[in-house]
Design brief:
about 170 residues; alpha+beta; Translation Initiation Factor IF3; four-stranded mixed β-sheet; about 40% helix; about 15% strand; elongated
């Protein structure tokens, strides 16, 4: 079997399938990866999340996570990792934080219950009127969720929450 060199674009699920021992390393690297112990989360998040997105969730630069994974796996070339940079929006849209959300979710609670927040949010968006807003509160920046919802046409705004964690405001198109 040819070993895949870890890059910012490597899918977390592929990495764990190829190197099951890396799961505990990831959790030790950041407690925010503990949700990956849940097989449902590994199948959903792991299938779409890249190492760069995981780094964003852990609030570390992508090159740092790439280099740490390469070192743990005995791979060379950790210095070649690229930095995805800051992807946060430059401004808050008027509807984010100024309207009462139709629904508020605690993403960490959904994960603890074995549910994938992206599936729950997409299902509830389908039930809402155009212009209605969902607020998702979570302890990490949920890059895979953000990208999945954007691909399905949702308008959203994500920003650090007052105090700790993240808020993702999702507007039904």
């Amino acid at each position: 079997m040819t070993e895949t060199l870890v890059t910012p674009d490597t899918r977390i699920g592929e990495l764990i399938r190829e190197h099951p021992e890396i799961l505990e390393f990831l959790i030790g690297f950041s407690p925010r990866f503990a949700a990956l112990r849940n097989p449902v989360m590994r199948r959903t998040i792991g299938r779409v999340a890249t190492v760069a997105q995981a780094a964003s969730i852990a609030d570390v630069p992508a090159p740092a996570l790439v280099m740490a994974l390469r070192k743990e796996l005995g791979q060379r070339g950790g210095e070649a990792a690229g930095d995805e940079g800051d992807t946060s929006p430059a401004f808050r849209p008027g509807w984010a934080g100024t309207v009462d959300p139709a629904i508020v979710f605690d993403g960490d609670e959904l994960i603890a219950q074995g549910q994938a927040p992206v599936n729950v949010v997409r299902q509830r968006l389908a039930e809402l009127n155009p212009g209605d807003v969902i607020l998702l509160r979570v302890s990490f920046k949920p890059e895979p969720l953000i990208q999945a919802l954007e691909r399905h046409g949702a308008r959203l705004f994500a920003a650090p929450a007052p105090g700790d964690g993240w808020e993702v405001w999702i507007r039904n198109a």
